[in-house]
Amino acid sequence: MANSTRDRIIDASSALFLQRGYAGTGLKLISDESDAPIGSLYHYFPGGKRELAAQTLRASGAAYQALVEAVFDAETDVVSGVRACFSAAAEALRLSDYADACPVATVALEVASSDEELRVVAAEVFESWLASATKRLRDGGVRPSAARELATTFVAALEGGFLLSRVARSVGPMRGIGEAIASLLEGELAPDGSRRFKR
Amino acid sequence: MANSTRDRIIDASSALFLQRGYAGTGLKLISDESDAPIGSLYHYFPGGKRELAAQTLRASGAAYQALVEAVFDAETDVVSGVRACFSAAAEALRLSDYADACPVATVALEVASSDEELRVVAAEVFESWLASATKRLRDGGVRPSAARELATTFVAALEGGFLLSRVARSVGPMRGIGEAIASLLEGELAPDGSRRFKR
DNA sequence: CCCCTTTTAGAATGATCATTCTAGTGGCAA
DNA sequence: TTGCCACTAGAATGATCATTCTAAAAGGGG
User: Fold this and answer.
1) Which residues on B lie below 8 Å from A99 (Cβ)?
2) Which conformational region is residue A59 in: left (phi greater than 0), alpha (psi within -120 to 50 degrees), or beta?
3) Separation of CA B52 and C1' C8 in angstroms?
4) pLDDT digits 0-9 by tens, B135-158
């Protein structure tokens, strides 16, 4: 059974780390936002801030993957699926005042060169996303040899869209990028293979 | 004439902010890395850490733009230009042990929701990049109505590539994404417009 | 040389940080 | 009830933070 206090801590951490970064988020702030005393933070995460961040990356990474999969799988083809993902991301940004974005990217960039343990956790999350996207593209008719790179491009474009849209406070970038990536996949799936993505 | 001490401070800040984030980089560390005493930091940047970060984002953003433009302009067509940019980014990552990446993204994500002043600075840098890329795509034959969105996709994919390659410590993502974006532009430029990116 | 401004130098300060610690409360099983 | 364990609660601690401050060195023009 899920522990409610632990979940509140993870939820608060996820939102705060995403919005303010790892170093920029104090445990006191997490304690306040989650209504859990500092003693509870160390009770559930004896490894301290590092372990809390690692677990938060894992949990919110898995949750975000499930969300994207649900949005994608609700469509009937990969082009619509990709379009729906960008559309949903844009909508989430707009509705949350540009706060609800990728729960991994901010911390990942921050720790990639300076905290090996957390870097590996982030790498595992992204690898899981890429595997999921690759499988879905393959199942949707994308040539197996091209699926992995197109999946990588999809994830990268989504991440870049979060960055540009959040900084600009506009859904324009995310929407435009979504159209372009959908178009890329359309070209790949066309019966005439002459203009296919080569690999 | 450029002030050498000031330049050293900016250079050190650029590298440190990119690798450790804004909150994660102490002024003491910048002082050590740049061989400039703390008094000098406040002499050249009276606004303190915030002003230093703002000026660093502006300076390193402009420098990176110039670098990308030079790589792009050395090629004869936009497809080769885009390919060269991703290739150069991958090479820079590999040679620097995955430290030499986008000097804006880490701080931008960190401050987008929590520091309006720095968010605006980052937004201006990205807007300048997008304007530059849009112009080059237009000049290279991309339909004007599609150029802005394709430029946005190019920048977003590059940023996503930095994220994925840095976290995975592999140039694979950056290279694959580069091929895919080059392929997207190839489709756009094809004489047969049937599979063009629509807008 | 003197004078004046720029720049260096880092100690002092008070705030905030992650972490530890002690003392508890609440609930459940025996 | 008694004992036990999970959890709460936040004060105490020492480190590190950004910033301010005083003082002097460096540099250049007269």
Assistant:
1) 113
2) alpha
3) 18
4) 999 999 999 999 999 999 999 999
